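Incident log entry.

Two folding requests arrived from the same account within the same minute. Monitoring flagged them as a possible duplicate submission, but the sequences differ. Recording both here for audit purposes.

Request one:
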Amino acid sequence: MNIINKKLSLEEFKAYISSFNFSPLNPNKIVVHHSASPTQAEWKGSATMLSMKSFYEGKGWPSGPHLYIEENGIWLFTPMNVTGTHAKAGNTMSIGIEVIGNYTSQVWQGKTKENVLGVIHSLMDRLKLSDFSIRIHREYSQTQCPGNMITREWIINELNKYIKPQFPKEEEELRIKMDIVNKALDDANQSRIKLFKAKGKTPDKKYTIKDEPI
């Protein structure tokens, strides 16, 4: 498994993605997780990243989440142009974000919250995504992740308090149309996976958009 294992500040992350080539992944959503363990107190930066790499390799995963976000910065893990492994059907065309800490009984706070909202905002801006692109792990698996206190509605509400990108009317209309298409793709891929599993098979392909919208 190849990982980047590099920490960036929020401003450095914004600069990093400004010219980053997201192809061939071409993400259309951001899937939010929490680490639960390690906690903030247990987080040891690069050493923890290497430990997570070994953990995922032990599970036979070819990749992991794309980003780990903690109090002191944003850690690059799986390259953001490679399909990550973090949310089953939610792996398709997504950026997987792990927020360090356990949010079963509390929401993100302090610098962690600032970093997470900053990263989500920056990715939405760079990839021309709207609120529908924000997803959480338990939409795809039977899990409490990203913590019972973290819901899509809460994240979106907090982002609305954050400075969000403003788009021309024509572009915003296109983004809304693409959201409808992306939701249909998500639903179709999840249905395909369930159908194949029921037959004891593995899907041989995923539905994707082949052409640019007109």
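Request two (distinct sequence, not a duplicate):
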Amino acid sequence: MSKHDDVVKALKELAEKYPHYSKDRIFAYLDRREPIRIPFHTYTHYYYPDLWAETKRYKKVDVYEVWYTETEGEAIADIYLSAKIPNLLDICIVCVKTSKDSWTKEYAENIIYTVLEDLEAKYPSLKSLRAQGNVDVAEIGNEELKDKVKLKESLKKQFEF
């Protein structure tokens, strides 16, 4: 299993214990069984984020993406697709920083907010994403990746599971 998959697995374990999520509505990309349907004008896109979970009370969706080997283009696509989810609540990004040129929280936030600003110009209804703080970014490094307990503790603290 890759480091990326280890992070997704840890997120899934935390989500399954989180009381606000519907236990039967938590899906990891590894499952490949339940995409999020995003309607566009002439077609529907089937999006498989690294993890997504639906809240019990309002049936809203939290999306989790792990940026480890993603290119900037792939990261932009993640944000764009996540922002287009009709019942989106939160976008949660995990930056895996294992070297000097890896993803960092600061760099990810710059990309995220730039993409969201551009989207808001075209779709004013998306302004609530940034205004309400519905984007969370966590950063993990080599120490967390070596120890699954530390990894889960770090993710739990940063995302307030």
